[in-house]
């Protein structure tokens, strides 16, 4: 019975050690899944959802369209956001169209895009990050009614901006949102 007890104890200890090892592996942070479709890179953020990370390597575009859906092979994804700093200081973008379905534009997503002269935002946009369009160069801005607040420095340092329209749902405007 002594040998049998030792064998059973050894097996139980091995199982516990293996379980602890697997649990430790599961808790380690994993790299986000990144996919490239067309001229953009996306990060998978949820089940069939992605956020735009920026342009694919070695790509420049003047007329940028952020699509509402993409296909990666046979896998469809809904594009729900543009990540923080996704296009910061990109000087090649002159026109930006964000398609309907996008809900979030992150902090400084287009900060310093000095060539950006034409901007179209969707009615599905509900969140805009600080300094999202700081330092751009468009002269007109039509804000979607779905947006309830304009954060700090969102459209600051845009000396060309002359006309702001829309935005019937806006209840809060952050400090220096339109500062020049």
Description of the structure:
- The strands form 4 sheets. Strands 1, 2, 3, 5, 6, 8 and 10 form a 7-stranded mixed sheet that branches. Strands 4-7-9 form a 3-stranded parallel sheet, with no helix packed on it. Strands 11-13 form a two-stranded parallel sheet.
- Helices cover 14% and strands 32% of the residues.
- The chain is α/β, with parallel strands linked by helices and 180 residues long.
- The chain has one helix at 2-27, and strands at residues 34-37, 40-46, 49-55, 63-66, 69-72, 75-82, 95-98, 104-105, 118-120, 127-128, 140-143, 149-150, 163-166, 172-173.
- A hairpin with a 2-residue loop joins strand 1 and strand 2 (40-46).
Please supply descriptive tags for the structure shown above.
14% helix; 180 residues; 14 strands; 3-stranded parallel sheet; alpha/beta; 7-stranded mixed sheet
Helix/strand layout:
Elements: H1 2-27, E1 34-37, E2 40-46, E3 49-55, E4 63-66, E5 69-72, E6 75-82, E7 95-98, E8 104-105, E9 118-120, E10 127-128, E11 140-143, E12 149-150, E13 163-166, E14 172-173
């Amino acid at each position: 019975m002594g040998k049998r007890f030792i064998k059973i104890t050894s097996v139980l200890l091995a199982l516990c050690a293996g379980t602890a090892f697997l649990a430790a592996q599961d808790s380690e942070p994993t790299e986000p899944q990144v996919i490239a479709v067309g001229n953009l890179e996306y990060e998978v953020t949820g089940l069939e959802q992605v956020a735009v990370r920026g342009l694919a390597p070695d790509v420049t575009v003047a007329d940028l369209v952020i699509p509402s859906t993409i296909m990666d092979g046979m896998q469809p994804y809904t594009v729900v956001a543009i990540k923080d700093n996704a296009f910061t200081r990109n000087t090649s973008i002159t026109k930006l169209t964000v398609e309907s379905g996008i809900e979030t534009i992150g902090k400084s997503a287009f900060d310093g895009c000095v060539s950006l002269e034409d901007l179209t935002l969707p009615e599905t946009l509900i969140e805009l990050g600080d300094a999202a369009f700081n330092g751009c160069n468009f002269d007109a801005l039509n804000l979607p009614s779905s947006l309830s607040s304009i954060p700090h420095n969102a459209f600051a340092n845009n000396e060309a901006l002359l006309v702001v329209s829309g935005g019937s749902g806006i209840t809060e405007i952050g400090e220096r949102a339109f500062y020049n």
